[in-house]
Amino acid sequence: MINPKALSSGFELSQKNTDELWRWSAAELAYAIRTKQISSREAVMSCLKRIEEVNPKVNALVEVLAEGALRAADASDRSVLKGEELGPLHGVPVATKINTDQAGHVTTDGVVAFQHNVATDDSPPVAHLRKAGTVFVGRSNVPSFSLRWVSNNDLHGSTLNPWDPTRTPGGSSGGAASAVACGMAPIAQGNDIGGSIRYPAYACGITGIRPTIGRVATGVNLPNGDPPLSLQMKVTEGPLARNVADLRLALSVMSAYDPSDPVHANVPLTGEPLKKQIRVGLLRDPGVVKPDPAVNQALNEAAAYLNDAGYVVEEVDLPLFAEAYKLWYLLVLEDLTDLWPAIKQFGDEGARLNLQYNYEVSRQWWGEVTLEKYRTGYARRGTLIIALQKFMEQYPILLLPVSAEQAFKQNEDIESVDSNARLMAAQWPMMSIALLGFPAISVPTSVSGGLPAGVQIVGRRFREDTILDAAEIIESRANIQVPIDPLFH
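RESULT FIELD:
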């Protein structure tokens, strides 16, 4: 049952404009549907109308499921009238990602050669969202093979950032973030191996959470069925939403147990309260690259909000993050070597150039990768995790940039090896956390120079509740409003 006191707007539902249900939060919609103040059909039709209005401008959803969504909405409304048991997101519109299996729909991963790959079953995250009562309204765009921080490909075209079309909406969940930011759905499903949830959320001015590895069963589906270590140890599913309350709600749904993930753990979503006063470690740069002024300002604002709420924010030095960032290159890119022939054959130019430049940057540190280097790298990863866990005994929450700069220009990652290296360095906060497996949330703070700015909050493993709490404090003071109309013609 959804608590009406948890509604994000703070207003009674009767005071809200039902002509613009696409503006409502998922919690508001779910509560109003179950209490018969609105119907699921009304909510879905509102989102479909919004999709029709703005999706042609940003190309966030590359498959719109209008007919199926309306059928599902009608079934949701019949369940309400019959008094059946309802899921926590009953009747609420949600978008899924085209690299994730949804029964009866194509899992293209942005690849022309995969355009006929119709899924026969739901992947775990989609299955759990469906069981919670959601209505799927569309499938969101990704880069080819989901391996860039932009979201364009030869099959579906380019997704645009609604704040500025010359800037990336992020990747690989860029379509998801752009759709949520524009009001096409209050929640979207994403996945993250090096920032693919957190960076799009940051670039589009919304929230996104990368849970602890093992918290949410993944939706990765490989031809031979054997996931490499990087997929087992670094990929996780998670939601994107316009507010933290919806993020918390969606995470609770997606965290349901599923035996098909080799590292999934059925761990409670709430732990023991942290000891007061809660110390927060503020890390601006572990020695990789200094954050730009807008990022520094966002960190300062977030630190002030947390201090005002009773947290104790202190600047810290954690060089292990710089080491983890470089280890991401060694371990993830080595595991992608098996995928490299397929990317060369089926990927678009962006996918090929980006990965080629990634490897060239990696070789500057690691040279040619040997089995010994790979084994030593994984051993070192464990040592870094232990070191961070010990540090977080004193600082259970860390405040970091999401990226060292604001959303970069479209396709800047494939201009040259140097531009790729610069952008990869700016993303150290996301890549290091992905390597170490800790939970992290991206939360916006303000708009600077016409683009969203925000911060990343990191918590102890399986303590997503603590970072969601901190993110809600920042959100309550943030000077940014979504959903937005695309700010271009």
